[in-house]
Amino acid sequence: MSFVGTKKVTRFDYVNYALLAIISLICLFPFLYVFSVSFTDPKAYIPLKFYLFPEKWSLSAYKYILSTNSFLNALKSTLFITIIGTLMNIVVSFTFAYVLTKKVLPGRSIMLGAVVFTLVFNAGILPSYILIKQLGLLNSYWSLIWPSLTSAWSLIVIKSFLESLPSELEDSARIDGCSELGVFLRIVIPLSMPAIAAFTLFFAVSHWNTYFNALIYLSDSKKWTLQVLIKTLVIDSDSNGVGQAGAGGDDRVVPQETIRMAAIMLAMAPILVVYPFLQKHFAKGVMLGSVKG
User: Fold this and answer.
1) Fewer beta carbons below 10 Å: N end or C end of the chain?
2) Where is this protein localized, as stated in its record (predicted)?
3) What is the DSSP string of the chain?
């Protein structure tokens, strides 16, 4: 009895798998440490000690973080920027990319050239800051949304994906009396759900992790995003930005390290929760966009 096409596992495969397992564990250890310290009881926490698992479980750090106005304000700011920004990214990117697929559109080559130009050349930080200031968007959430409505890379990939869809479906819809807007909403969008799911994740992660632009455009600490707030906790030695906003003048003493790790876990949690639901569309959406160049 022979097995046709069965690949023999060699020593190289075993060594390769072992190295990949070791690298995976090395990458996993920092997350385990952050998780462990965040759930460690403040009374059992010992600085400069490596924690793989909490010696004594406690939610004190999470209760403390969630009771502060600064963290709640940062969470609201990040949720607003992520939800509104992602929705606008999807609408602008797919409508613009759909327009670029139409070869009969006047000025299509000029628009496509402008998109590719921005992929190669960038104005820089100073001109961007001056533009945001002249538009009156400083210290506004829209300073983080409007400038990043889409990107050249996203447009090119989405355009490639839309061009891979059968054009006969659009032609048959037009024969049935469907308008261009109807073709886009009833034919193109339903067929583009894998790509929409993939780019929703791309855009959402980008907005959720917004740090540098929020740091230079938002001067009001009440409008800080989670990433800026975590920077003040992790990098700055004084974390009074969280402590002074505690609820009801609580006198609880929670070690700074457990507060920092709890804040990091809370910032990572939403993306870790959402990603598994979009994972099945993630690879499919990106691969379909690479079929045509």
Assistant:
1) N
2) Cell membrane
3) ---TTPPPP-HHHHHHHHHHHHHHHHHHHHHHHHHHHHTB-TTT--TT---SS-SSB--HHHHHHHT-HHHHHHHHHHHHHHHHHHHHHHHHHHHHHHHHT-TTSTTHHHHHHHHHHHHH----HHHHHHHHHHTT-TTSGGGGTGGGS--HHHHHHHHHHHHTS-HHHHHHHHHTT--HHHHIIIIIHHHTHHHHHHHHHHHHHHHHT--HHHHHH---GGG--HHHHHHHHHTSS--HHHHTT-GGG------HHHHHHHHHHHHHHHHHHHHHHHHHHHHHHHHHTTS--
Q: What are phi and psi of 57, to 5 degrees?
A: -70, 145
Percentage above 70 pLDDT, the chain: 85
In angstroms, the Cα distances linking 170 to 105, 165, 178 are: 16, 9, 9
pLDDT range class, residue 246, cuts 50, 70, 90: very low
| Residue 261: burial class (beta carbons within 10 Å; 0-12, 13-18, 19+) | buried
Phi first, then psi, for residue 40 (nearest 5°) are -80, 135
Worst-scoring range by mean pLDDT, 5-9, 99-103, 149-153?
Answer: 5-9
Contact between 212 and 228 under an 8 Å Cβ cutoff? The reply is no
Residue percentage of the chain with pLDDT more than 90: 17
Average pLDDT over residues 277-290: 61
Domains of the chain, each with CATH number or no CATH: 60-293 (1.10.3720.10)
Return the structure tokens found at 281. 């569309």
C-alpha–C-alpha distance, residues 144 and 163, integer Å = 30
Residues 6+ apart with CB under 8 A from 273: none
